[in-house]
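Hi U.,

Before I forget, here's the chain from the pilot set. I'm dumping it here mostly so it's searchable later in email.
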Amino acid sequence: MTITFEKTGTNRGNLIFSIDRETINKGLDQAFNNIKKQVTAPGFRKGHVPRKIFNQLYGEEALYEKALDAILPNAYENAVKEADVSPVVKPKIDIESIEKGKDWVIKAELVLKPEVKLGDYKGLKIKKESSEVTEEEVNEKIEAEREKLAELVMKEDDPAVIGDTVVIDFDGSIDESLLMVEKMRIIHWNWVEDNLFLVLRIK
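Structure:
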């Protein structure tokens, strides 16, 4: 097997390799065995046509595609190992030469693993972040968890105060000529000091 690798970019290149006649013949045998049950020829039962007769009638070239499918994966893998390259995606395959009685020549366009060059990382200093938790942060976290777990308790007679969650049924009108404002129920409106107003959507 003859192998050459030509770099065409930072992480791209062409791997050109040959497949020897012994391997090709094995592929042709495998291809013929896979199709011979469907082969017909005058004077022979279907599936019993000898290889020599097949070649005379159809030509050895009729087996090339299936033979290449059978032998290419191993040939490509061996070429990659011998060239010592590391493709990261499936290659684009082109047939450079596929002639009867000669080695086949295949070109694979490769995308390679990028080369990583380390800079001068020795002696770098990193500022250690403080892991100390303040009392204020602890209290904020506790309060947030308390809010999540809090349950609403109904109070019917007392007026709403800052911090209460209220349920309001609202039905209003503006001027006598306006027939209706959308009736709405506001559920779980959090009555807070900075949000003491409602926005109404009018039909």
